[in-house]
Specification:
This protein has helices at about 5-15, 30-35, 40-50, 70-75, 75-80, 90-110, 115-125, 135-150, 155-165, 170-175, 180-195, 200-225, and strands at about 55-60, 65. It has a two-stranded antiparallel ribbon with strand order 1-2. Helix content is about 70%, strand content about 5%. About 30% of the residues are buried.
């Protein structure tokens, strides 16, 4: 392993073992380097790398702290990587969405509050088959974000948010080129909401699968035609 990688691993082990907890301040650089058997330059590089992925927070004039390590914060790094996707990887993102979004819908059917379900209705209310594609897709992003939030699982919610961006353009393409795409999307959204409101997790899972799989299948056909 490169020296910097060794330094990263040693700091990671301090956190994983509980020696350092969220919010804790790291020892002084000189003391920590000596304790871990590292050069100060290697330790500095490790701290810089871990701060980039939000594991550590370097505060000028104050010291270096372990962050909250919340899923949303840590998965920001994944969102950064996702931004570098290429068009030919969009299908891969849709495949992952087809795995996790039905699970989120099923969990939301059990855990989502009535007030949160009412927000889904508010998002749907102004939309109809004549709605523009860009407006529909923007609504779709918020719709799926709220359902993921309603799952009560912050890791799942962060994953859904991170994976929504790369498939945004595919959904716009579908809306512009596939007949009745807008009406079909709205109908599927209503079916998902009804299943969640009725507290039917299996039905919610099924409709969410149909919904994401529709975009995936359209893209597969478009890429092979």
């Amino acid at each position: 392993m490169a020296v910097t990688d060794v330094a990263i691993e040693k700091i990671k082990q301090m956190i994983v073992s509980g020696e350092l907890s969220p919010g804790d301040r790291l020892p002084r650089e000189a003391d920590l380097a000596e304790r871990l058997g590292l050069s100060r330059s290697s330790l500095r590089e490790a701290v810089r790398a871990l701060s980039l992925i939000h594991v550590l927070d370097v505060r000028q004039g104050d010291g270096t702290y372990v962050t909250s390590l919340s899923p949303h914060l840590l998965l920001d790094a994944m969102a950064f990587v996702v931004d570098f996707h290429r068009d030919d990887t969009v299908l891969h993102f849709l495949e992952v969405r087809r795995v996790i979004e039905p699970a989120a819908a099923a969990m939301a059917a059990v855990r989502m509050s009535d007030d949160a379900i009412a927000k889904l209705d508010e998002i749907m209310a102004p939309l109809d088959p004549a709605t523009g594609v860009e407006e529909l897709v923007a609504s779709d992003l918020e719709f799926h974000r709220l359902i993921a939030e309603g799952s009560g699982n912050p890791v799942l919610c962060s994953l859904v948010e991170s994976l929504s961006g790369p498939t945004h353009r595919a959904r716009v393409w579908r809306g512009l080129t596939q007949e009745d795409a807008v009406a079909r999307t709205l109908a599927e959204h209503r079916a998902i909401v009804q299943a969640i409101r009725s507290r039917q997790p299996d039905v919610a899972r099924s409709w969410a699968t149909v919904h994401v799989a529709g975009v995936e299948q359209w893209l597969r056909d478009a890429l092979t035609s």
